[in-house]
């Protein structure tokens, strides 16, 4: 059996948008309701996608803001990025845009695999960012767009499958679709 391909993905975005919750939901299948700011954490999980085995390393970063300096280590050995905002915060969407600019400056390459995630889509009453606004930024930064709820485990696995798919696009037959937050 071929060895699993090792891929590293960094989760970035404002504080408290749900980066850790997405990683924990994906890797451990649970949602933790209390909030504990992350310094930095790494998770790993074996993922089978399109018949290939991957060892996925998720770097859960400390939340950033528009003034944060992009740590140079996030450009080294990282294969893809998940930029997360929360649909109840327009500010957190703006931070994703700034982070993207800083990231591109740092890595000097505009073709990096990115998934833009609007998390907390269960918070319907508090929505400040429409799906359209999220989708527009995603198009601008050439990212795949998804809305998720780490709480309700909606579209969470899709985030990581999409970022892997984006990485492997050159070498395979992979889809490029987008999914909306499904309200059931
Ligand atoms: N309603 C709702 N709450 C969520 C969701 N995801 C995360 N939360 C809550 O939002 C808060 C912050 O979640 P975290 O996962 O710690 O956020 P983070 O982005 O890792 O935060 P930092 O470590 O500060 O960067 C916690 O209280 C979570 O329970 C979601 O999908 N829906």
Automatic annotation (TrEMBL):
InterPro entries (alphabetical): P-loop_NTPase, Small_GTP-bd, Small_GTPase, Small_GTPase_Ras-type
The record lists the catalysed reaction(s) as: GTP + H2O = GDP + phosphate + H(+)
Any Gene Ontology biological process: signal transduction
Q: Where is this protein localized, as stated in its record?
A: Endoplasmic reticulum membrane
**Any one Gene Ontology molecular-function term assigned to this protein's record:** metal ion binding
How does the UniProt record describe the way this protein sits in the membrane?
Lipid-anchor
A GO-annotated cellular component? endoplasmic reticulum membrane
UniProt keyword terms in alphabetical order: GTP-binding, Hydrolase, Lipoprotein, Magnesium, Membrane, Metal-binding, Methylation, Nucleotide-binding, Prenylation
Q: Which family does it belong to?
A: Belongs to the small GTPase superfamily. Rheb family.
Protein name from the UniProt record: GTP-binding protein Rheb
**To which species is this protein native?**
Tigriopus californicus
């Amino acid at each position: 059996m071929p060895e699993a391909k090792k891929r590293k993905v960094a989760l970035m975005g404002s504080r408290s948008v749900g980066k850790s919750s997405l990683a924990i939901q994906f890797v451990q299948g649970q949602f933790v309701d209390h909030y504990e700011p992350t310094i930095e954490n790494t998770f790993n999980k074996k993922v089978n996608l399109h018949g290939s085995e991957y060892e996925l390393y998720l770097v859960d970063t400390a939340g950033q803001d528009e003034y944060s300096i992009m740590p140079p280590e996030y450009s080294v050995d990282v294969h893809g990025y998940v930029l997360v905002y929360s649909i109840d915060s327009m500010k957190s969407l703006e931070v994703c845009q700034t982070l993207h600019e800083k990231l591109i400056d740092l890595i000097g390459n505009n073709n990096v695999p990115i998934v833009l995630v609007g998390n907390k889509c269960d918070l319907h009453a508090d929505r400040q960012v429409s799906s359209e606004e999220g989708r527009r930024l995603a198009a601008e930064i050439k990212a795949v767009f998804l809305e998720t709820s780490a709480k309700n485990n909606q579209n969470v696995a899709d985030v990581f499958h999409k970022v892997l798919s984006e990485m492997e696009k050159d070498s395979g037959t992979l889809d490029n679709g987008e999914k909306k937050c499904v309200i059931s």
